[in-house]
Amino acid sequence: MDPIRYISTRGAQTPLSFKDAVMTGLARDGGLLIPDRIPSIVDDLDDWKQLDYPELALAIIRLFADDIPEPRLRELITDTYATFAHPDVAPVRAVGPLHVLELFHGPTLAFKDIALQFLGRLFEEILEERNSRLNILAATSGDTGSAAIAGIRGQQRIHIFVMHPRGRISPLQERQMTSVLDDNVFNLAVDGSFDDCQLLMKTLFNDLPFKDAHALGTVNSVNWARVLSQIVYYVYATLRVMETTGAPGVQFAVPTGNFGDILAGWYAKQMGLPIRRLVLATNENDILARFFNTGVYAKGAVVATINPSMDIQVASNFERWLYYKVGQDPHIMARLMTRFAMEGRLDIPLDPCGHLDTEIVAGASDTKHTLATIRHFQEKHGYLLDPHTAAGVFVAQQFNEREEPMICLATAHPAKFPDAILEATEQDLAHHPMLDALETLPTRCDTLANSAATVKDYVAAHAL
C-alpha cells in the first residue's frame, strides 16, 4: 500500500510526508493538514488488547508515520512515556456510574503532555537529521503552553514563543510556564483573549515570507502529530473498559474548547474503534455545543470561567472535522472558512430528523453545575475532579442512558485549579508537590500588545 501523505483541508498544499507535515504545522494555504486516507484497525483490535501503552502507541502511530524507521520510532515513544508518573500512562478508573480516563500523569499534570512530550522528541529527531532549526510559535489557553515548554526546554535547535491571554489563565498555569527560565523559552502575555492569541499565531503563519525566513513551526493542535498522539488513548481506554465490563462498545465524554481532543476520538471511531458516540462538553463559551445542536457556528464574546482552557470561541481543529462533513471538498471548505473569517458565522443544514451528526452529541455546563459536580463526586465517590473534567462529567450524565459504558476524559489534575476546588468543596484539597513548589520559583514573562506587528517584531528579534 502507498504511504500516507498529508493534504490540506483547503486543497492548495502539495502533499507532504509525515515528517514534513510535523515541521510544517499549519498548511501553507491556511488550511489544516490531514492524512489522505484513514486506515482501518478493526482487524487489529483483538491483538492489541494485551499491549501496554507504549506498545499500543507504536502500533497506531506507525500507521501514519511511515518515514521513521520502526526501531527509532519505538525508541522515541518509549522515551516519551518514561516521563509519566503512572505505570499505565493513562489509567482508567471506575467512578460511580462512569469510567474516568486519567490523562494527567505527565510532567505538567495535563492531557497535553501525552502529545507534546512525543512532539518535542519528534522535533528534536527531525532537526538533528536535517541539521536545521525551528522557532515554535504557540498560543495557549492554559495547559498547552506548559506542556509544550516541558517538551522543548533546553533544546539547542529550537526557540519556543508561547502566547497566553494576560490574566485569563489560572495563576498556577501561568507559573508553570513562566518559571521555566531556559534560554530557548519565551513567555508572552498578550492583552486579549485566547482567540486573539490564536489569531495572531495564524496571522504570522499565513505571512509565508516571514514563516520561511524564521523557520516557524507549531505545537498547537493544528499540528497533526498532536491529534495522532491523542488517538492512542481512545483505543487504550476502549480496550480496557470493554475487557473489564464485557460491553461491545463504549461512549466518550470530552470537555473541549479547541475541538482537538474530541477530534482524536472521532478519528479513532472512523478507524473502526467501537465507539457508540462522542459527547462534546463545553462551558459557557458554547459555540461548539450550539453548533452541534443547531448547525450554526457563530462567534460570540469570550467569557472568563473557572475552566479557562475551554474559554475559546474559535476552535482551531473544527476545520478538520468540517472537511469530512462537506464531502472532503476543499473548494467548499475554502469558501466556508473565508466566509467565517469575514462574518464570524457559517451554517450547516441539519438532516431531516433534526440532527447534524449522529456520532457527536453536545451540551454545556455552566459554573454552577460544574462546581456542583465537583462537590457531588467528592462527597459521594471520594473522587476529585478538576473543573474541566467536571464540565465533561456533568454533560456526560445528561447522555448516559445507553448500555455502553461512558468514559469521561480527565484532562488535568485538580491541584492545578485550587480556587475552584475550594469553592466547590469548601476544603483545601487541591495540592500536588510539584505545583506547591512553584510558589517560590522566580518567573520571566514579557507583556505584548494584541498586535501582529508587535508579536512579529518580538519573534524576529529573538528567533534562532
CATH architecture tag of the domain at 92-108 and 225-432? 3-Layer(aba) Sandwich
Distance between the termini: 39 Å
> Biggest sheet, open or closed, and with what strands and sense?
6 strands, mixed
Q: Count of DSSP E strands?
A: 15
Which ranges are low-confidence, i.e. pLDDT below 50, for 5 or more consecutive residues? Answer: none
Q: Which descriptor suits the 3D outline? A: globular
What's the level 1 CATH class of the domain at 92-108 and 225-432?
Answer: Alpha Beta
Overall SS class: alpha/beta
Overall pLDDT score = 95
| Helix count, DSSP H or I runs of 4 or more residues | 19
Please estimate the helix content. Answer: 40-55%
CATH level 3 topology of the domain at 92-108 and 225-432 = Rossmann fold
Radius of gyration: 21 Å
Strand order of the largest sheet: 3-4-14-9-10-13
- Tell me the strand percentage band: 15-25%
Short structural summary:
By secondary structure, the chain is α/β, with parallel strands linked by helices. Helix content is 43%, strand content 15%.
Chart the SSEs and their pairings.
Blueprint: E1 6-8, H1 18-24, E2 33-35, H2 45-48, H3 53-61, H4 70-81, E3 92-95, E4 98-102, H5 112-130, E5 134-139, H6 143-152, E6 158-165, H7 171-178, E7 185-190, H8 194-206, H9 208-213, E8 216-217, H10 224-245, E9 250-255, H11 260-270, E10 275-282, H12 287-294, E11 296-298, H13 318-325, H14 330-343, E12 345-347, E13 360-364, H15 367-381, H16 387-398, E14 406-410, H17 418-425, H18 433-436, E15 446-448, H19 452-462
Parallel strand pairs: 4-14, 5-6, 5-8, 6-7, 7-15, 9-10, 9-14, 10-13
Antiparallel strand pairs: 1-2, 3-4, 11-12
Helix pairs in contact: 3-4, 3-10, 4-5, 5-6, 5-10, 6-7, 10-11, 15-16, 15-17
